[in-house]
Design brief:
Blueprint (H helix, E strand, L loop, with lengths): L1 H27 L5 E2 L10 E5 L12 H15 L5 E5 L2 E3 L2 E2 H11 L7 E4 L5 H10 L5 E7 H13 L3 E7 L8 H21 L23
Parallel strand pairs: 1-8, 2-3, 2-7, 3-6, 7-8
Antiparallel strand pairs: 4-5
Length: about 220
């Protein structure tokens, strides 16, 4: 029994070290690609806005969503991007992240013909790969919170997409510990996807996309 316990502890220790190592690699290799200052941010034609739910438990406002939309609108208004791909999950008519993002951005003054909805962005991996393979983009600005941008940029670098990231305003400390824990685990999974699994992005895709006039600007 003692040997089993000891072996279990060693396995657990190795798993923790591996997770921390993967996190360090993802963050360290992308830190120079994330911008916090609008003035120093290079301009690109397209911004890739990564989806999240508009509301959290009990119908409360999701600050990740709010700050992400405000950052996206700011980049558009300041001419840092010309078009926005809103990539997120559409599980049902009652849960549609891209549609919610479009509504929020419209209220913030972004015109509809500057937005394209990608409802097959089930995961960050899907959003990144589809940006290149489905929408034909080679260079984009990823818009999300800093912790999320690191993983998205790591995926982009290894999937042939030239990307930089703009860090939306972060949430207050302790706002969502679950989200941070999930991100720590998602980074090793991202490395697994890149080097081992190589899943097909958008395999559950159905042709339900809302292609506004902006699609013409993407050559579609």
């Amino acid at each position: 029994m003692k040997k089993l316990v000891k072996a279990g502890l060693w396995v657990g220790f190795c798993v923790v070290v591996l997770v921390l190592l993967c996190n360090w690699i993802v963050v360290d290799t992308t830190r120079n690609k994330v911008y916090f200052d609008l003035k120093s941010l290079p301009s690109t034609d397209v911004g890739l806005v990564l989806g999240t739910s508009k509301y959290v438990a009990r119908g409360k406002e999701n600050l990740f969503f709010r700050y992400r939309m405000e950052a996206s609108a700011l980049l558009y208004k300041e001419g840092k991007v010309k078009y926005l791909i809103l990539s997120g999950n559409k599980e049902a008519e009652t849960y549609d992240e891209p549609k919610a993002m479009k509504q929020a951005l419209t209220q913030l003054g972004v015109p509809e013909d500057a937005m394209l909805l990608d409802t097959a962005g089930y995961r960050t991996y899907d959003s990144v790969v589809r940006c290149r393979e489905v929408y034909g983009q080679e260079r984009v600005t990823v818009i999300s919170q800093n912790f999320h941008n690191a993983r998205a940029l790591y995926l982009a670098e290894h999937e042939g997409l030239d990307a930089i990231g703009f860090a939306a305003q972060d949430v207050p400390e302790g706002y969502s510990v679950r989200t941070l824990i999930r991100e720590y685990l998602a980074r090793p999974k991202a490395m697994l996807d890149v080097y081992v699994l190589k899943p097909e992005a958008g395999v559950r895709e159905t042709q339900i996309f809302d292609f506004p006039k902006a699609a013409k600007a993407f050559g579609k």
